[in-house]
Write a structure and sequence with these properties.
Layout: H1 2-53, H2 56-65, E1 111-112, E2 115-116
Length: 119
């Protein structure tokens, strides 16, 4: 009889201890979830502020007012360069006073997948 009573009391105590451990873990989980939610909100706010600082209007205003830059009076488009033809090798000259000749320009450019491969 005493053994049965001790087993019943012991099992009830173990259930209470287990329930307490589950409750403590749930409290810690709730606290961590609140921290994650706060960090997510802060991250979103920081992303929005970075995006606002990178807006073209803000960049132009900063360049004009803080850096005293002026916009270009005329914008010139760069001519199109065909990608299927290799560019000619540049003409190079030796440095003044070096006394060495520049290497002869190469006339062949290695191609990779139909495009010139430059080192």
């Amino acid at each position: 009889m005493w053994l049965a009573a001790i087993l019943v009391v012991g099992s009830l105590v173990s259930v209470v201890v287990g329930d307490d451990l589950v409750a403590q873990t749930q409290l810690r989980l709730a606290a961590v979830q609140q921290q994650v939610a706060a960090a997510t909100t802060t991250e979103h706010q920081l992303q929005v502020s970075v995006a606002l600082l990178g807006a073209p209007e803000v960049v132009i205003s900063t360049a004009e007012h803080k850096l005293h830059l002026t916009p270009a009076s005329q914008v010139v488009d760069v001519p199109e360069v065909p990608l299927d033809k290799p560019l000619p090798a540049p003409q190079t000259a030796p440095l003044p006073g070096s006394g060495t000749q520049a290497p002869a320009p190469s006339t062949s450019v290695p191609m990779v997948n139909g495009h010139p491969a430059y080192a």
